[in-house]
TrEMBL record:
Pathway the protein acts in: Amino-acid biosynthesis; L-arginine biosynthesis; L-arginine from L-ornithine and carbamoyl phosphate: step 3/3
Name of the protein: Argininosuccinate lyase
Domain Argininosuccinate lyase C-terminal, chain residue ranges per copy: 356-427
GO cellular component term, pick one: cytoplasm
Gene Ontology molecular function: argininosuccinate lyase activity
EC number assigned by the record: 4.3.2.1
Amino acid sequence: SGDVVRRDRFSGGPARGFLSSLAADERIFEADLAVDRAHVVMLAEQGIVDEDDAGAIFDALDEIEDAGHGDLPDGEDVHAAIETAVIQRVGQKGGRMHTARSRNDEVATCIRYRLRADLLDAVETVVGAREQLLETAREHTETVMPGFTHLQYAQPTTVAHYLLSYERALARDTERLVDAYDRTNRSPLGGAAFAGTPFDVDRERTAELLGFDSVLVNSMDASSARDFLLEATTALANLATTLSGLAEDVVIFANDGYVDLSDDYSSTSSIMPQKKNPDTLELVRSRAGDAHAAVSGLLTTLKGLPRAYNRDLQRATGHGWEAVDAVIDATEVAAGAVATAEWNEDVLAAEAGDGFSTATGVADLLAMSGVPFRTAHEMVALAAEQSADPDYETLESAAQEVLGESLSAHVDRDAVEAALDPAESVASRDSAGGPAPTAVEGQLDAAEDDL
Ligand code: ARG
């Protein structure tokens, strides 16, 4: 008969809804079907389940897949519900599907299977964002802009150098996602509840069928471990943190008139008709909060859990999905907003030298002529103190005071004027990784190769 035999004991009673993860498990519905199929193939190959029964189970799984998650019978989770649905279709023999496994190794396998796809999606999105940053950077190797530390004018740089700084950070975020992928891509299946099984299972085979790189051998580790989920969530939070800095910068740049965001990435006010607001970037910035909350939720849930399986793990999973959902589209939006923004070259050039931000260059010039750098620093600091916008004259009087001799004894006037010019200042800083257009071209080529 097709009747499902399930004991009523432990069916949940008033806590049934509280116990169930069926709704949230929609995310691993496809994964569970894949895991079921791989497991049944292996059981048939090992002679644990006969081929007719395996065939009937496959047919049922196909029907269940076509009907979709929404059509599943009630169950404590997607694993139980799919098993029930199989038995409803093929009768008691459907219950052979759960031979030599537990929901503990099953769910761990499903999470890893789904997370792999999500991580690949994340990597693809970050790579796309990096391509967009590099493309925009290529157009702006000569676009001089103010550079800041402590949000104070610091030294002039270029838009390309600035954008490349984020592309490089995203490159490391990519590496972290790939690292997390490597440790996610290992199979716990066949570990059963935690203590293995007397059946002659072939764990390598199910791992291979599901595309995992290797098997998590210790069966207690296999069903208990969620460090892969924490690692992936943390990698996503790290990425979100990178994006939040970029978003914050561009919000400020929009405020300063350095960039105009495209209308596509802006919003307006319901009352102030003139407003064009950088809402998309503010939401990117806030997504880092979601991702950090996910890391914190996950760490708090996992901390101090005893071996082996505990139901707390059911609540851990969602934190990982929260991070995935918060960060992937934020990456896409951040990249789109930056790639479509208009950089206002005149405003950037006009402000690039503000706040005497070429001062370091003058000190460097003096140091190159033999003045100890600290003395040069002192002289230029004095000039800066005496005037908001020092020129050769202020520097000359500071030289008299600090060096006790004329500036021209050390450097000629033209060199000083050049050092004070933002574009020349940028061009002179051609050390490895520096903002000089020549140095940035090399960095762009290397970044493109890396990509
Ligand atoms: N739904 C559970 C989870 O997500 C798997 C069920 C294991 N249940 C159990 N009582 N051992 O972790």
